Each structure stands twice: as C-alpha cells, then as structure tokens.
Amino acid sequence: MVIKRYETGGGVVVHEGKVLLLDRPKRGEVRLPKGHIDPGETPEMTALRETTEESGYADLQIIADLGCQLVEFDYEDIHYIRDEHYFLMQLTGMQRIKRSKLDEKQFRPIWVAFADAVAKLTFPAEKQVVSQALQVLQTTEH
C-alpha cells in the first residue's frame, strides 16, 4: 500500500455564537476548512488561505492556536498520515471573495450553532477540534 504523509492548516471560525462548517454534498461530508501547507507557508498562513478559499470569507483573524493532531486514514488504496494544525478564528468583517468554480462545487459554507456543530461534523478528529475550540472560548470569556 502506498503511504502519503503531509501537513495541513485549518480553522474553526466563530461568529455570533456560530461555527463555520463546510457541507460537501458530493461526498456526504460536513467538514472544517483546511488544506495542504504549501512550500514556504506557515500553518497559520495556510489556515487563513484555505479557510478563505473554501468558504469565501476573507476578513479572518486568528485568536488562538488549537494545536496539531495526527490523523491516519485509508482512501482509494492509499494510507494517509496527516498532521492537522488548527486555529481558532473570528470574523473581523463580512467581506466575501469570489471562490473558484472548484471550491464552489465542492463546499457549501454553513453557519451552525456551537451546540450543534460537533454533531454535524462527519469526522471524529474534527469533532474533537471544535470541542477544544469551545473550551478555549469559554476559558477566555471568564
């Protein structure tokens, strides 16, 4: 079996008590925005770029580092090993950019109440990240 290892950067975007998720109807998935770290990019740069590309929201600010987790899975006879770096983000405005046709087809941005976000997500690793983000938010609000 072929093994592919890579790193990603992604975000948990919050705004007015809601979390930004990406509905991916062709795969029957609901995900967090994230993507491959390009050469010369930091995980933070990737998280901001990928979240903007996939969601269309451009006014983003990182407010906390949610750490990195190792995720392994098999897909189409390839074993993937991925280091996922996540950051808690907030909107600083509602500016949207035009997304690529590919991103428009793949991802439909949806805003979900924090209480429902974990249940809506497809993958356990992303559920864990959103739970962690909620804990960070509750800690900083007190």
**Radius of gyration, whole Å:** 15 Å
Distance between the termini: 49 Å
CATH topology category name: Nucleoside Triphosphate Pyrophosphohydrolase
Instruction: Write down the secondary-structure element order.
Output: EEEEHEEHEHH
Strand content: 35-45%
Helix content: 25-40%
Structure summary, number of beta strands: 7
Instruction: Give the biggest beta sheet.
Output: 7 strands, mixed
- Give the rounded overall mean pLDDT: 91
Number of domains: 1
Question: How large is the count of helical segments?
Answer: 4
CATH superfamily: Nucleoside Triphosphate Pyrophosphohydrolase
CATH architecture: Alpha-Beta Complex
Structural class: alpha+beta
Give the overall form: globular
Keywords for this entry:
seven-stranded mixed sheet; 44% strand; 142 residues; 7 strands; globular; 31% helix; alpha+beta; Nucleoside Triphosphate Pyrophosphohydrolase
Q: Can you describe this structure?
A:
The protein has 142 residues and is of the alpha+beta class. It has a single domain (2-141), classed as Nucleoside Triphosphate Pyrophosphohydrolase. The protein is 31% helix and 44% strand. It has helices at residues 43-55, 101-106, 114-120, 124-141, and strands spanning 2-15, 18-24, 29-31, 34-36, 60-75, 78-91, 108-113. The protein is globular and about 45 Å long. Strands 1, 2, 3, 4, 5, 6 and 7 form a seven-stranded mixed beta sheet that branches.
